[in-house]
Each structure stands twice: as C-alpha cells, then as structure tokens.
Design a protein that fits this description.
heterodimer; A: 395 residues; alpha/beta; Rossmann fold; nine-stranded mixed β-sheet; six-stranded mixed β-sheet; globular; B: 290 residues; mainly alpha; two-stranded antiparallel ribbon; 11 helices; 2 strands; 71% helix
Amino acid sequence: MTHSTTTRRHHLATLAGLASAALVLAAGPARAEDTVKIGVILPMTGPSASTGRQIDAAIKLWMAQSGGKAGGKKVEVLIKDDAGVADTTRRLAQELVVNDKVVALAGFGLTPLALATAPIATQSKTPMVVMAAATSIITEASPYIVRTSFTLPQAATAIAEWAAKNKIKKVVTLVADYGPGNDAEKFFSSQFQLNGGTIADKLRTPLRGADFAPALQKVRDLTPDALFVFLPSGQGAQFMKQFAERGLDKAGIKLIATGDVTDDDQLNDMGDVALGVVNSHHYSAAHPSAANKKYVADFQAANKFRPNFMSVGGYDGMRVIFKALDATKGAGGDALLAAMKGQIFESPRGPVLIDAQTRDIVQDIYIRKVERVNGQLYNVEFDTLKAVKDPGKLK
Amino acid sequence: MLTLLFDGIAYGMLLFVLALGLAVTMGLMNFINLAHGAFAMAGGYILILLMQRAGWPFLACLPAAFVITAAAGALLERTIYRPMYGKPHLDQVLFSIGLTFMAVASVDFFIGSSPQNVQLPDWLRQRFEFGSGPWMLGMGAYRLFIIATCLALALGLQAVLSRTRFGSRLRAAVDDPRVAAGLGIPVNRIFLLTFAVGSGLAGLGGALGADILGLDPTFPLKFMVYFLIVCAVGGTSSITGPLTAALLLGIADVMGKYYLPKLGAFIVYVLMIAILLWRPQGLFSREGKR
C-alpha cells in the first residue's frame, strides 16, 4: 500500500515538474522552431565501430567548440547507430527525415551505406554530408551529397606517382574486394602504368577475411619491388603483422599503401614492422600546422585515443554544415546545399575546398613515412601534392 | 609449393581443434551445439585479456583458455544444456544459435567490436627457410607450434577414446544411454565431462587461432560454417574423420586462394559438395549407426 502511494506521489511530482518545465519552455527563447536538427548515422557497433567512435568524438568536439549554435539557432545532433548494415542506414535516414525533420543527414561509414541512403536525400531534398565513405562514385549518386572525407583515387594516384619516381618498377597490388578497394586498384594501376611501371599481378582479398597468408605468399613468389595495399580502416594491424611474419620485408619487398593501412588509430599497436612504410593520405595526426596541433590536443583532452582521418572527416563535415546554416539563417533544403558548395577553409588536415561542381572535396594529399616520434609511431609527411581533385571525376 | 602445403596443414590443424568439440557433442552426444563458436571466441578473448591486461606469458594463457572455457562449458551443461538433450534437433539449433547471438552481443558490449591483436612472444615470430625456387619451404615458428600442439592433442584424444576405461564408457553411454545407465555407468557425469572437454578444446583452438584467423565479436558466426563443414565431411563418429577433413579443407582453402584467387573462398564449398555427393555419410562414418 505504502508503495503505491509513494509511486503516485512520485507521479504527481513528475507531472508538476513537467508542467513547470513546459511553462518555462514556452516563455523562454528556446522554442521548438529555434532548433535545427542534424541526423548523423554512424556504425557505432559492428566491425566498423572504430569509424563511428572517431567521428562521434569529432562531432562532440565540434559541438563543444562551436557552442552548438549556427545561423542564430540551437543545433541538435541526433546520432544513430546502423552497425554498418545498409538496410538499417536507409531506414534510419528515412526516420530522421520524416519524423525528426532534420535539415541535413551526415555520417556514413562505408560506401554501401552512403549509396543506400542517396535516394532518400534526393527525394526529400535533404543535403547529405558523407564524412567517411571514400568510393569515387558516391557523390554522383545524388545531387544532394557533399563529401568531407576523401576519395580513394586521390590517395591511390598520389602514391602511384611517388612510386614511379622512386625506382619502383614492378608492383603487385593487394586490395580488399569491395568498392573502395576496386577504386584503389584501378587508379593505382593506371597511374603507375602511365608512368612506365609494370603491375605484376592484381590480388584481392575477401572484405572480412583476416588471413592474408596465401595472398602474401603469392606476392613473395612474384618478387616485385613493392607491394601496394589498400585495406579498410581496422585491418591494417593484422596485415602488417603477417607481412613481417612471412618475411616479405627481409625479401626486399617494399610496402606502399594508402593511409588507411597505417591508420593513426591502430598505428601504435603495429610495432616496428610499420616503420618506414610509405603511404599517401589526406590527414595525419602529425600534420605540422597550428590548426592541427590544437585539434589533436583538444581531441585527446576529451578522449583516450588519437584522432585519425575518419575523425577529421567528421569534424570538417560539422563545420561545413554549421557554416552553411550560418549563411542560410538556419534554412534547409536547396538553400543549405547551395551554401555548402564552394566553401573554402583551413581544416586540421590543411587547406580544403568543397568543389561546387562535383560537391566533392579538393585537398592536399601528403606522402608520408611511418616514423617514431617521441616514442610513438606517426605518419610523418615529407611530400605534398597540392589541391588534388578526385581523379575519378576528371574524364 | 611446399610452403603452401605447410600453411594449409597449419590452417587445417587449427580448424580441427576448433571443430573437434563440435564433432564430439554432435556425434557422440547427438546434440547440435551451434554455440560452439562462442566457446572458441571466449577462449580467444581470455587469451587477449590475460596477456594484455594481466600480463601473463603466452604459454600460460593457452591452458588457462582451455580450463576457463571448459569450466564455463561444464556450468552451462549443468544448467541450460541438459534439458535440451531430449528435445528435437530444431529446438537445439534455435536454442544454441540464440546463445551465439547473445555471446556476440555481450562481447561487443563489454570489450568492444574492434578486431583484437595478439602480441606473440619473439620466439614464435621466427621463420625457418630451406631450399630455394619452387621447392622452397618457409615455416613460420607459430604455425609449426600450432601443428605440433594440435597433433599431440589428436593423438592424446584418440588414445583416451580407444584405450581407456573412460573412453569405452563414453562410447557405451552414447550407443545406448539407458542400458549404459543400467550397467552402472554414470551417464550424466560422462556427458558433463565430455561437453566440458569439447568446450575447452574450442577455447584452446580459439586462443591458438586468434592470431591467424583474427578475433572480433563476429568470430562465432564467421567460422561456424567451417566447423560444420568439417563435421559434415569428416563424419562425427571418430577423431580421424574430422582430422582428415580439416586438413583437406585447410590445404584446399590455402591452395585455392593462391592459385585461383578469383574463386578464393568458394573452393571449400566446392570440395564439400563433391565429397558429400560421393559419400553422403561423410568420409569416415559407421554407416547405418542411427
């Protein structure tokens, strides 16, 4: 009996509290129409969870730094987990657009997830900011897609040029067998062959496989000057270990890669075998600029891990949305999209531009080498290709 | 060529230890335990946690993985598996696949979903190489270690099953539990022990394989198919059956990925279909047993 009375009293108290809260809300400045919502869909669980974790941390950092206001309105970020399953991404996007009336969609950890959502962006005229997925064709899937990560052709072409200039004549490529892997393989080989190199073989491994033994044995038997590798963020450590175990480094085969393999998130766990690996990417936590030093320091103050290229895609994505909201005074749809196009700003990764025509990012691509700095492994940049457009769209 | 054969054997041996527990419960106890992979995953995570958080040496972690998963297996057998023995196979399958999903989700929640890395001790990271050209044999110390361990296990288990009193009691209990019980054989305790050893073997296999197969929460789902293929092809009534099947599959898988990378992972299935068409009972089976 006493129990039910307390519950009832509790209910009454809650109701009273709600009522007064409603009164305050109605009277105060923060009315519903003064809030804009951004729907972020990320793989927070499942095999690509590290992508989600990085971008989530970057978004929180941006919200804290910007005060969570844009265009005179309060910005609310709704983060949803799709576990890396395309069906779920699409459903969540639909819910965010229809029920929550978000002004922009953002996130998208993998290519299939972004492609599955593209029709929803088109039909609802909602700008969709791709913060991670890196296959070239994504921005062509909908006129409402804007990308703030990178494209694999950007990275692959850069390392192919570097290789051809640095006495590497014969290369075997090894990529994970899905969209970005195929992009990496195609653009690396064509650029490398254009510069006079030969591709001895093109190998592909299943996306989810962790045993690279047969492929690595084949590479060893082909005795190329170098092995070019692309693997999705997260598989790099396993690969590096097997590369060393099979004695490929001792057989004189150089390892060149896109920066996904020497991901900042995992680099320290890889150990000495990663030292000296040359790779190309758009972001390194060791990028020597004031903007990046501040970014890394603030990021690490809030998190226990180092920011990687995924985080910077998320951080810049938030910036693009916020600046566009500032310009449109919080309006969404086509106006917001137009305000996103052509933005130029200084990112932690360096100067970037959102190309108005392709809605894809134009940025510097760095050639880096893994080195030990203050006892930790970092990708240290030693060469820069200025303002690289996505080679996939230069026909 | 020889190197490939060596890698294939190591891979096959690993599959054998992982699948053996399943073969034991399925063949000897007539119980389909799809949660077997979850025990293997548990073994892998025990190894990782003990090595990286508690700083245990690698060699001490392997028996620990065996003992802890065996204890967990025994506990679960007593509490939730035993009532399932009499149930139809479909119930058993649904029940154990449910357990698998629970295991996957809880590892995801407590440890995180990123792939784990094993830091092997240096003496297991060496590599021995002999000869040159196509007949060069390169052996990773770790794979050599796996082959030796698994071979010893196989021989030991075979001896226990065919030579000891426990082995003959187990076989009797499986053939007809009621008569065996009537003869004074403690059927329940034998099943409990068998189940525990089967789970422990899975745990050991998971710990050994964490480095080669990779370890993340989806491990039980990723490798379940392979375990089932080993049982289907090898038959489940002996130890030599799964051993041969696992070796065959391991070698075929590695060779397939090397020579026909386009077909890659599919080779294993082709092989399974061919063998099952030829011998639907599996390679080695006491025909007409049930």
